[in-house]
Design brief:
By secondary structure, the protein is an alpha/beta fold. It contains 10 helices and 8 strands. The structure holds adenosine monophosphate, zinc ion and fe (iii) ion (2 copies). Adenosine monophosphate binds next to helix 5 and helix 6.
Length: about 290
């Protein structure tokens, strides 16, 4: 790719399709990326490669690069005070890697087992909501809490998706149900063994008390083999972005970025541009792809 000619084009390396909790199909994401003049796109569904697999039979428009991806929900490393799960992105993985696919099959079971538990808690709280209601919203993809949240909004039990998470579905809230997760060390090893690059997703979103704690988290993960951090993310402030760039330089880490596009399930976030003026520099992509084994 001629990086000088493409200097003003952006990339989006964090998107969700209908295979998890996004509302566009993988081919629709590719088409939208091309229409939006993006230079590179990755689909990073939660704990599944089914969406990425569909792309192997989709022609990629000229001028757009596609990178395989995933976002794995893991437990928190011991000794780091995170509520909820940690998200690890994996880029450039072999989608047919047997070890990775075995673990993803186990995670699918843990997800499938969680949904009835969430529904039961919501029923106890007095909401009329069935597994079938939620399944219909998820279509062929795997069910995530945003589908449950969307169902609650549709039935007017919550004003919007955030409201449903804040009052019922978020970690520690009355309809929260935990599920089996792998450790970050396992996720990092699996991604690397599948030929990919493991990257910490949205580092500023784990509710850590300060940047020192965040740095400690990153250092623990780097010792486990993590190779990069998601520096550019719509919810990262300018200050946090600058701090993350400095940290990546100090620790010699790759930098990535993306919008966390979910289609209609995150209606304020557009592909490539987030809430309007977001842009991930294409130069990051060159370094990332050079590191993929
Ligand atoms: P799951 O993988 O099913 O546990 O759901 C995780 C998804 O829920 C992620 O895509 C997040 O974007 C979304 N999510 C988590 N917490 C919140 C929140 N407080 N408000 C809105 N969405 C959330
Ligand atoms: Zn999601
Ligand atoms: Fe995430
Ligand atoms: Fe995401």
């Amino acid at each position: 790719m001629d990086f000088r000619k493409n200097r003003y084009r952006g990339i989006d390396l964090h998107t969700h399709s209908t295979a998890s909790d996004g509302t566009l199909t993988p081919p629709e994401i590719i088409a939208l990326a091309a229409r939006s003049n993006l230079a590179a796109i990755s689909i990073t569904d939660h704990d599944t490669l089914e969406g990425v697999r569909q792309i192997s039979s989709t022609p990629i428009p000229a001028g757009l690069h596609f990178l395989t991806g995933i976002e794995i929900s893991t437990s928190a490393p011991s000794a780091i005070p995170i509520s909820g799960s940690l998200h690890l992105l994996g880029y450039g993985i072999d989608v047919d890697d047997p070890a990775l696919n075995d673990v993803l099959a186990q995670l699918k079971v843990s997800r499938d087992n969680r949904t009835p538990g969430i529904i039961a808690k919501l029923n106890t709280l007095g909401f009329t909501i069935t597994h079938e209601d939620v399944r219909l919203l998820a279509g062929d993809g795997q069910v995530g809490r945003p589908h449950v949240a969307a169902c609650m909004v549709k039935k007017r039990y919550a004003s919007d998706i955030d409201d449903a998470f804040n009052r019922f579905l978020g970690h520690g809230k009355p309809a929260y149900v935990d599920r089996y997760r792998i450790t970050p060390t396992e996720a990092i090893s699996l991604v690397r063994a599948a030929g990919g690059v493991p990257v910490l997703a949205h580092p500023a979103l784990y509710g850590l008390p300060d940047f020192k704690a965040l740095r400690e988290l990153v250092e623990v993960l780097v010792k486990a083999g993590m190779m990069g951090i998601e520096v550019y993310y719509p919810e990262h402030s300018a200050t946090v972005t600058r701090q993350l760039i400095a940290l990546a330089r100090q620790l010699d880490l790759l930098m990535t970025g993306g919008t966390d596009f979910h289609g209609d399930l995150k209606p304020n976030i557009s592909l490539g541009t987030g809430s309007g003026d977001f842009l991930v520099p294409l130069t990051l992509f060159e370094k990332l792809t050079a590191a993929i084994s």
